[in-house]
Specification:
10 strands, alpha+beta
């Protein structure tokens, strides 16, 4: 083998090693970007699409288990043993996928595909007059009664002792109670 051939082989080897290092750096940069761009909506959307069972802890302190059936612009709908729960993102303190992947880093950087909002979903639901449990900031217990109306910023719920008007921004959970 000539000196020229040996030099060419060495140069090709160096170039291959440099390309592998560049590929690793690109992968590391993409992974770092995915971590910094992750959103709660994106992570929840990933779990919903995977069909994973989830555990949600609300800012009210309640723990809810179930499957996410819809991801809206500002929250999620969770189907669980207590019933159907409407949870604004602001009302979610933490979220787990107990049987999901063991990856610690969030990767969801997408936005919900639906333009629906929790208020719009609840406004549609109010016509059915369902029995609901509502977790409201500042209340010690759930408000339990009949959902009568929902507007842009207020929910009307009829309790045993009459109607209560709840500021929508203070609701961390509204669960349509399962019958039985």
């Amino acid at each position: 083998m000539s000196d020229f051939d040996a030099e060419l082989i060495r140069l090709l080897g160096d170039e291959r090693a440099a390309e592998v290092a560049r590929a690793r750096a690109r992968e590391r940069n993409l992974r770092a970007s995915a971590l910094t761009d992750a959103t709660l909506a994106g992570v929840v959307l990933d779990a919903a699409e995977a069909g994973d069972r989830v555990a949600v802890r609300t800012v009210f302190g309640r723990a809810l288990l179930g499957h996410i059936t819809l991801v809206a612009q500002d929250g999620v709908v969770l189907e669980g043993p207590l019933g159907t729960s409407y949870l604004p993102f602001d009302g979610i303190a933490s979220f787990r996928r107990p049987n999901g992947p063991r990856v610690a880093e969030p990767a969801g950087d997408r936005h919900p595909p639906r333009m629906a909002t929790i208020a719009a979903l609840l406004a549609d639901l109010a016509g059915e007059r369902p029995r609901v449990g509502v977790a409201v900031m500042g209340e010690r217990t759930l408000l339990t009664g009949e959902l009568r109306a929902v507007s842009a910023d207020v929910l009307t719920i009829t309790l045993a002792d009459g109607p209560v008007y709840v500021a929508a921004r203070q609701v961390s959970e509204l669960t349509v109670l399962a019958s039985g």
